[in-house]
């Protein structure tokens, strides 16, 4: 009768550890094929044939966990990156110079990029702005804002790359997508029809908030020192255009 535990023999090796010899052995270290006992048993700690990385035989993997565990892990990863936007390094109390910007940067946020957060914020922004539109224009507004966000992120990323940035395309898109969170707050105020006299100051703060977060995180992207302003300018235009869309909605 087969065992009910699929991982009962997980710790047992599928092959003998000394079947594959390390590459640095010479002819004197090899076993005699006519001898039953190995002349120099290998120490498992010195074996170099193991491939580093995730053990696919491990009993814990994403296929065995529940949907809630997978979802909660992804949401926690989104929250970790969102905290870099909620608490930017530069708050405009002291406007940073080019040296401060280039010496900053959130390495962990840049390296561990994902597109879940940018997709969620883009969908939220498109949905909230489409709610403000007339009935016959809702679909057009949703599609237009959705396309505008992704094209804008691609253009800003291309600008950073052309100015010497060494970040990958999707790293920059991920960072810019997360910095849309304050713009989503602007769209939320528009969806609830808040008076313009209240919205305008809040929109100004959210614009500076997004810009500060973008500059803080993208600061270590490797842009040439005398071209930092050229990299920040398209980012500011992108945020300003989205804020204007929220204002006129």
UniProtKB/TrEMBL annotation:
Belongs to the YIP1 family. The chain crosses the membrane at residues 115-133, 140-160, 172-195, 202-222, 228-248. It is a multi-pass membrane protein. InterPro entries: Yip1/4-like, Yip1_dom. Residues 18-35 have a biased composition (Acidic residues). The keyword Transmembrane applies. GO terms for cellular component: Golgi membrane; trans-Golgi network. Residues 1-59 are annotated as: Disordered. The lineage of its organism: Eukaryota, Fungi, Dikarya, Ascomycota, Pezizomycotina. This is Protein YIP. Residues 110-244 form the Yip1 domain. Pfam families: Yip1. It comes from Sphaerosporella brunnea. Residues 8-17 have a biased composition (Basic and acidic residues).
């Amino acid at each position: 009768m087969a065992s009910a535990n699929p991982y009962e023999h997980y710790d047992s090796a599928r092959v003998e550890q000394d079947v594959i010899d390390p590459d640095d052995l010479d002819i004197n270290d090899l076993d005699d094929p006519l001898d039953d006992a190995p002349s120099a048993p290998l120490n498992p700690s010195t074996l170099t044939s193991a491939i580093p990385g995730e053990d696919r035989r491990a009993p814990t993997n994403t296929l065995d966990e529940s949907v809630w565990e997978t979802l909660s892990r992804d949401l926690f990863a989104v929250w970790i990156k969102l905290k870099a936007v909620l608490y930017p390094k530069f708050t405009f109390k002291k406007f940073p110079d080019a040296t401060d910007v280039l010496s900053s940067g959130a390495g962990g946020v840049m390296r561990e990029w994902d597109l879940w957060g940018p997709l969620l914020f883009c969908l939220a922004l498109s949905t909230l702005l489409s709610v403000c539109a007339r009935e016959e224009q809702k679909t057009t507004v949703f599609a237009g804002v959705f396309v505008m966000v992704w094209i804008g992120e691609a253009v800003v990323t291309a600008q950073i790359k052309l100015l010497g940035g060494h970040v990958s395309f999707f790293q920059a898109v991920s960072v810019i997508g997360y910095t849309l969170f304050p713009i989503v707050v602007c769209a939320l105020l528009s969806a609830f029809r808040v008076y313009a006299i209240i919205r305008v100051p809040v929109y100004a703060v959210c614009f500076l908030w997004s810009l500060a977060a973008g500059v803080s995180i993208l600061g270590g992207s490797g842009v040439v020192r005398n071209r930092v302003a050229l990299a920040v300018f398209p980012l500011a235009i992108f945020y300003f255009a989205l804020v204007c869309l929220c204002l006129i909605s």
